[in-house]
């Protein structure tokens, strides 16, 4: 983005008091972050498509939250949901070989990989520029703990968990 483009973007924010951002996919690179975390910690496991693993895990999250939104039962705590999906994946024929290798400690650590995600390369700079003009906040169905772990760029976090939504 050039200097004039930035000026135009800041001009467009005049009168805007707060901006809500989706976090996963918009501000942070969940797919790259989770697959890199898997690769870094479990690099001895050759031939594993960690991107496919991350995508399947995230797809399971969407399916679970959609089912709950449609009246199904289940936890809305993202950490609980991520862990349930992980355990389910590791019991499936595609990933059961990993399930045999990963004990409780590894599974707990891997579930927390979602707390250690990094922003897209331009996210921090962009958020910093925007918060000079307006309050920036998350609008997320992530858990309080998950968002607090990633809060450094935010002035406020707004969560479904707090709204009982």
UniProtKB/TrEMBL annotation:
Keywords, sorted A to Z: Hydrolase
InterPro entries linked to this entry: HAD-like_sf, PGP-like_dom2, S-2-haloacid_dehalogenase
Domain of life where this protein originates: Eukaryota
The keyword Hydrolase is annotated on this UniProt entry: yes
MF terms (GO), sorted A to Z: hydrolase activity
PANTHER family: HALOACID DEHALOGENASE, TYPE II (AFU_ORTHOLOGUE AFUA_2G07750)-RELATED, HYDROLASE, HALOACID DELAHOGENASE-RELATED
Record's protein name: Haloacid dehalogenase
Native source species: Hermanssonia centrifuga
Highest classification ranks of the organism: Eukaryota, Fungi, Dikarya, Basidiomycota, Agaricomycotina
């Amino acid at each position: 983005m050039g200097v004039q483009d930035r000026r135009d973007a800041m001009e467009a924010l005049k009168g805007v008091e707060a901006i809500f951002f989706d976090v996963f996919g918009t501000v942070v690179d969940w797919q790259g972050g989770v697959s890199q975390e898997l690769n870094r910690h479990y690099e001895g496991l050759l031939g594993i498509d960690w991107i496919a693993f991350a995508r399947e895990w995230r797809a399971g999250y969407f399916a679970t939250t959609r089912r709950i939104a449609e009246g199904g039962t289940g936890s809305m705590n993202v950490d609980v949901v991520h862990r349930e999906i992980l355990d389910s994946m590791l019991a499936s024929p595609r990933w059961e070989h990993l399930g045999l290798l990963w004990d409780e400690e590894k599974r707990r650590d891997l579930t927390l990989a979602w707390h250690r995600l990094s922003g897209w390369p331009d996210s921090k700079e962009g958020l910093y520029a925007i918060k000079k003009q307006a309050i920036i906040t998350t609008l997320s169905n992530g858990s309080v703990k998950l968002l607090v772990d990633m809060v450094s760029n935010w002035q406020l976090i707004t969560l479904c968990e707090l709204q009982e939504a």
